[in-house]
Write the structure tokens for this entry.
Amino acid sequence: MAAFVVRRTLGALIVLAVVSFITFCIFIVIPGGDPATRMAGKNATDENIANIRETWGFNDPFYVQYGTMMQKVFTADLISYTTQQDVVAEIKRGLPATLSLAIGAAIIWLFFGILVGVISAVTAGRWSDRAITILALVGISMPVFWLGILARYYLGPEKAGIFPNGGYVPLTENPADWLYHMILPWIVLAVLFIGFYGRVLRSNILDTINEDFVRTARAKGLAPRRVLVKHVLRNSLIPIVTLFGLDFAGVIGGGAILTETVFDLRGVGQFAARSVRSLDLPPIMAVTLFGAFFIVMFNAIVDFVYAYLDPRIRPS
Amino acid sequence: MTQQATDFTLDTASELAQLEQGPIEGRSPWYLAWRRLRRNIVALAALVLFVLILVACALAPWYADNVAGTGPNTTHLTDKVTVDGEQVDVISPGGIKTDPETGQTTVVPVEVMGPQLWHAGGKYVLGADTLGRDIAVRVLYGGQNSLKIGVGSALICTFFATLLALLAGYFGGWSDWGITRVFDLIAALPVILLGIALGAALAINGFHHFGVDIESGSLWIPTLVISVILVAYVGRPLRGQILSLREKEFIEASISQGAGPFRVMLAELLPNIASSILVFFTLIIANNILVEAALSFLGAGVQPPNPSWGTLIAEGQERIRTAPWLTIVPGTAIVMTVVALNIFGDGLRDALDPRAKVRIEH
């Protein structure tokens, strides 16, 4: 197990290094043109542009530029091209909102996803199962930002008056207000996953029910509820663990961009969306690395948990 | 969708014999699948809905000329249209009005024409936007772009995913190692983040490398970006299937009869994963339409004034207070299309292989 952990961690580090290089290439090689000209604005003199080029190191060969940028990421003095803000500080500022959104939504989607999946599987073929299946399908098929826009307006202060009109209040400042502002974004983000998890769990349970060990459990006279919870559900939930780890990382690492933008939560994702519009390389670089870090880390964690839950797949 | 995992009819030989009374001819798996699909009314209805949406979007120019009488980017800021015999402003001018008796002034907001259905004789059926453009026309033209990108990127994505999966699964060793690492790498990048990064970078000057020239406003940019970011999600499960097929006896038999790599890949492996590819293709179109909408919404997909369902929602978002139909109409178009594709994809999977567990991860 120790060797497995070490190898998996090393692999993750290499992936992160390559990811950073790819992101760098996307912004240096693809756009062409001259970042200095873009930064200098419309009425810049040649001298201005040359100055910018010199200070920001655009004259260096691209591998030197890459090295400098990575160094800045690790020493936390990466600075935005357009707003001159400290990128790492900006990410730190956005992190509470992003984590609030991701963790809250994850709890909701895990709870309701499992509930919906179990109800659906237990009543398979009956109207409740049909209704859940249809609702789940519509949930997966909705663009999350569209649902968010409609929910924010129609449930917001101008129409139903149930929820506030977007925005984020820090938990440390006012817990009640934080909750009040977070509920709607949580639900909107969770809707997609509830439908998805419900469907996956439903088919897992229906597969497990036909296994021999379930028949044995029934045959020895266990109560149906006990068979369902202790035998069927426990085995059906293993794939959900994997799925959850990856989805949770995906949401922190960029999946929440749309929800954050629509509800104006000013999290890490919204910061990335703003930077992309102005083609500001350093923030995007940092946020992509930040996202990839979560995804790679959770990938590894999922592998460890999986190996723990199911000893058969422990890698050789 | 309506069929449950427990009550599938698998069309076993004995069952067919009962139905057809007497000895039965051999049926191809595709025929059996078609028989199963034919009985799934909901899936067929979903297919019909998707085809209707395709046809409606294809007929956008005809609709624009003959029904709405205006193009997708034609503005009508000062025009009037006849609604139920009355002349009404498309955009009513706002301003400050003074009551002649009391002298009180009131601010009258600018009002945009809402959905008229057929009251305006086919004009503004689904309302106007703030520039007086006909939303019905724009949604149909936008649908053309969204569907082109959705179907196009699904084609490209599935093609390369299949190719890479075949190469990795057949040759194994270094080629498998390399291709799996590429898949891992793409999957390690956050999907939407990679999408907007690529989309935004390409939107500036287009792509002019390696002898390929794509202009910045081209629909190829979102199409290719989406294909790249989702290739791992199709490629990984296909590779897994090929790896297990590779160990089967019929492959060994084929190789021992002197079949080369190409023959084994195209004539032996490909037909065996064809049903999975077909299901993936259907479901990935649905997924890609959602990704396109997200990228365009964030400004990294289709570039305005070229409409797509995503850009239309982005334009509508700012006007949700005064003109909610600008947001509701294109969003409904997306939901209808994606629901139809998902239902049909599910039905197709059940029909092609009732025991299969293919699914697409988000």
In short: Residues 82 and 278 of chain A are 8 Å apart (CA to CA). Chain A touches chain B through 62 residues (CB under 8 Å). Chain A has 13 helices and no strands. The mean pLDDT of chain A is 80.
